[in-house]
Amino acid sequence: MGIRIMKTSSYLPGRIVDNFYFESILDTSDEWISSRTGIKKRHFVENEEIIDLVKESVVKLNLSQEELRNVKTIVVATCTSSHAIPNLASQVQEHFDFGEDIYSLDINMGCTGFVAGLRLIEGMIQEGEYALLIGAEIFSKILDFTDRSTVVLFGDGAGAVLLEYCDKDNFFNFGTRGNTEALNYGKDSDNLSMKGREVYKFAVSTVGGSISEFLKENNMQKDDIDYFISHQANIRMLESMAKNLGVNMDKFPSNIDRVGNTSCASIPILLDDMSKEGKLKPGNRLIIFGFGAGFTWALAYMEW
Ligand code: ACO
Question: What is the mean pLDDT, run by run of 10 residues, along the chain of 304 residues?
């Protein structure tokens, strides 16, 4: 038994910031940013709070009365919540017509949060139930706008999926390599601080390498997989991972050029883009993987 994604949605705030904006405030260039990261633009909030992004992504799921009634788990993955209490997931329950027999939880596992949410829901969902998993971030509020090595990378946004119980198995694999230096906000720094090259190496070698192991552990070949759906941090990372795995970039979809790194929201936003473009077909076999602060990483196998 396992879980299946029934519906996807995404919400991006209205202010679009292209690389030329950063040229106007920092010693950087559109050429540097797009060639080193693949990013051309991202969305930043103006007056919205994170709960507004979360709510918009839920509205866009267009849930029926039957779906609202049978959602029993709400999980929000984020590392940029506006406050510690109350959590965002319980506020989702407050704003929509859900029942009260609901388990509501926020997850902070860096950019791994969305995949962590899939694993949690897979362990909880019962036949006939639905679950809501939302990834939402406002990185623009924690960035140092004088630090060219971090500020150009991130964007704001939210994505949501409605999950249902299904009789097909999922597989998961997780990792944690405690590292408080490479990515840090609020511990030693009032803004996000990052050792970019260290994060890059970790992602390509450890996380990229874990995909082959994951396939082997679950008796699958790379050719069995239709798409490797990665957290969107840097297009060069994805290219290296695809090359090391020996698969074509067509199997490593990306939308980072227009949204940047939206952390926990990046996977559901990408899934929603692919779904709208008709790229995801019933029965498609997916490996969905996330990685980031912690360091943490996680892989999930599921069928569309
Ligand atoms: N414009 C121009 N120059 C820049 C910029 C910029 N925006 N940023 C850095 N540079 C400079 C550096 O200062 C350095 O200059 P120097 O050689 O004179 O010292 C030079 O470019 C090279 O810097 P590197 O850090 O070696 O550049 P690199 O090719 O590694 O790219 C990058 C940097 C894009 C940050 C890359 O390392 C990366 O993508 N790392 C991963 C970041 C990431 O994914 N973080 C999110 C993790 S997910 C989460 O949980 C939040």
Answer: 96 97 96 98 97 98 97 97 93 95 96 97 96 98 94 98 95 95 83 91 94 96 97 97 96 98 98 98 97 96 97
How many other CB atoms are found less than 10 A from the CB of residue 172? 19
Ligand 1 center–CA 134 separation, angstroms: 29
Domains of the chain: 2-166 (3.40.47.10), 171-303 (3.40.47.10)
pTM equals 0.96
Copy the structure tokens of residue 303: 């069928």
CA of 27 to the centre of ligand 1 (A): 13
* Phi and psi at residue 272, to the nearest 5°: -65, -40
User: Pseudo-torsion of CA 117, 139, 288, 233, nearest 10°?
Assistant: -160
Alpha-carbon distance 111 to 231, whole Å?
7
